[in-house]
């Protein structure tokens, strides 16, 4: 077993900014589109900028979009999220539709630390101040000194009557009642 888990962040998996509890907050804060004006591998990114960038900015007013032309470099999308995480996606030879789909994915996903070491299998934001419940929580403390089996606390199995025995008694009582009626009338 390796010790690589010692260098991982520890914590509990949580929804970013309690997303889903109240209103939805888009986690993508900033997108930087980097491209080359002349290189052929940036053609899809340039087409996206000419045709779809304005619509994307209108549909997502909470996302800041930066356009950064660079000479002789591979086109890339750089995304920054509310929690400080960054993601870089290289878009070499992507079409306009592929760039649009990747931006949609970056917008909809929550980029948090994907590799965290879980401290426990369960977690609560509001721990109980009373402590955990056990089956002995509300029991009488006098039971601590009793030697079991104690007839005062529990009925012994020999004293209890089974359901079959009860039915046999009821049946015998009915038969005796019928005999007395038959003797009185006959």
From TrEMBL:
Its main location: mitochondrion. Keywords: Mitochondrion, Ribonucleoprotein, Ribosomal protein. One of its GO terms (cellular component) is mitochondrial large ribosomal subunit. It comes from the Eukaryota. It is found in: Mitochondrion. GO terms for biological process: mitochondrial translation. GO terms for molecular function: structural constituent of ribosome. SMART domains: L51_S25_CI-B8 (SM00916). InterPro entries: Ribosomal_mL43, Ribosomal_mL43/mS25/NADH_DH, Thioredoxin-like_sf. Pfam families: L51_S25_CI-B8. Residues 37-110 form the Ribosomal protein/NADH dehydrogenase domain. Gene3D superfamilies: Glutaredoxin. Belongs to the mitochondrion-specific ribosomal protein mL43 family. This is Large ribosomal subunit protein mL43. The gene is LOC107220291.
